[in-house]
Amino acid sequence: xxYPYRSKTNWFWAGAGIGLVLLVSGCSFSSGRAAxxxxxxxxxxxxxxxxxxxxxxxxxxxxxxSLCDNCGMWFVFPDAQKRTFVMRDMNFSLDILWIRDKEIxxxxxxLPPDGKKYTSPPRIDAVLxxxxxxxxxxxxxxxxxxxxxxxx
Length: 152
Prior knowledge:
By secondary structure, this protein is of the alpha+beta class. It has helices at residues 8-25, 54-59, 134-137; strands spanning 37-41, 44-51, 71-81, 84-86, 94-100, 103-111, 117-119, 124-131, 146-151.
């Protein structure tokens, strides 16, 4: 008895067909993450990992050991409203920048990794988390504008 899918050639073509279907449908084996962005505040550039899905926003920086000096996480929301962030499973302190229309509307500085909840002012559409002390070091305050320089 002959089994048509047992030969290497047939497996190759079956795999190529599946790959073509995934390519045409826009699927991939990547995580589906949005591209990172370079942000600029007061002339200082930050490489920001984008969290723009509910699962990415929920995970945030939880469980990470550290964050590079000029890195952050840029949380993007589909609408502007009050948000609550939790320092769940954090291993380092953070500064949280509450943002609306690319303007910083409030800053929470040097928040300890203690599991506490932090609530934004009303109507924010983005949040930038950076290492604790970052805003003090780079003189970043309420009212400062954020520019998106490029997408990586």
